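User: I need a structural model of Tryptophan synthase from Camelina sativa for a docking pre-check later this week. Nothing fancy, just the predicted structure tokens so I can convert them on my end. Input:
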Amino acid sequence: MAASATFRASVSPSPPSSSSSSSSSQLTHLRSSPFKAFNFTPLPSSRSSKSSSFSVSCTIAKDPAVLMAPGSDPALWQRPDSFGRFGKFGGKYVPETLMHALSELESAFYALATDDDFQRELAGILKDYVGRESPLYFAERLTEHYRRENGEGPLIYLKREDLNHTGAHKINNAVAQALLAKRLGKKRIIAETGAGQHGVATATVCARFGLECIIYMGAQDMERQALNVFRMRLLGAEVRGVHSGTATLKDATSEAIRDWVTNVETTHYILGSVAGPHPYPMMVRDFHAVIGKETRRQALEKWGGKPDVLVACVGGGSNAMGLFHEFVNDKEVRMIGVEAAGFGLDSGKHAATLTKGDVGVLHGAMSYLLQDDDGQIIEPHSISAGLDYPGVGPEHSFFKDMGRAEYYSITDEEALEAFKRVSRLEGIIPALETSHALAYLEKLCPTLADGTRVVLNFSGRGDKDVQTVAKYLEV
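Assistant: Understood. Predicted structure tokens for Tryptophan synthase:
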């Protein structure tokens, strides 16, 4: 929304010799200020010929007003605006060392968006290497499971991102960013990972394009995702364990950012979610937007319309945003994100950032965070390594405040039950992250009208989680 401020000042002209550097400094400050126009209007004054000062009124106005209030038309929203913000969320809260790299990355992203050669190469790799498009599968037995006694109930469709090369949605973004890094001349790649799926995807594309690859992973996550650690090393990546803090995704991300600050000239950071400083939330979203675009086209082919409800798990939020982005302007389509409630929302051991968090800054962006009264990050918990993060992508925070998306949470126990239920009903073993979204169907489906079409983003397969689940479930 528009904002302006009016200042009144007494300005005293000074000799050129003493004012030039000061004036230049002031102008530089004004140019870097996040405002678009500067209007100086002399105020009436009793300035006499003997006086060397006069009064001015200075009005600094932001970009033209855009109505971004809850209930307003999403088609008019700036996502993001020219400063990388989604409403008050997002931005660039980073060391000066990274500002040039982020600006270079943003410029390259915009340039390649209209580069036909780049787009053809990316489309070819997504088709022939990743295996897109992924099916929109009608889950017949899951649909039957939620049918009520009177025979009515919703229709459940699964967007099968688990069938992508490497077994999750993460490869969409990793491939695109690797191609972008090559265009920038960066031959060293770093990434963070929690569940290991983004790490595996990054190691995979680095092997494909012959790039040096370093993956940062929390020591706790390395233990519970040992299979993915082996896969990354097999693919030629160096996996660096992070033992600081909680030894999970937050700490791996912090270490990756420290590496990037130190090696920014030669290194590209393939951030794995719609989090971090601008342009990452926008860029990662757009590279995953293929999920929603395919879903729209497939829905039109299958039933001649749009989905009624979209469901996806949310940690950082990349798979959800990949599905949601295409449908944001379709206000009749419900968008539901499912977070990790861990041991329960009242236990203090959860990762339900949008449900229980407060606004703050983490890893270069303003968003909802799990933090204490002093602003210190609270250790999150989830049985799912990929949802075990105390922040969330800034656009999800924006959607929450605008009322465009709904966010709920699922406990570890509920996710484990869904892991087993979907494996037995559909013959598809889901990732624990995906299991949270699947578990929410238990609460959602009884509330839906007959024939409501639900599309759930089946974001990853559960091979990586079998050892973890075996400790909790008797099968």
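Before docking, keep this in mind: The longest helix spans residues 96-113.
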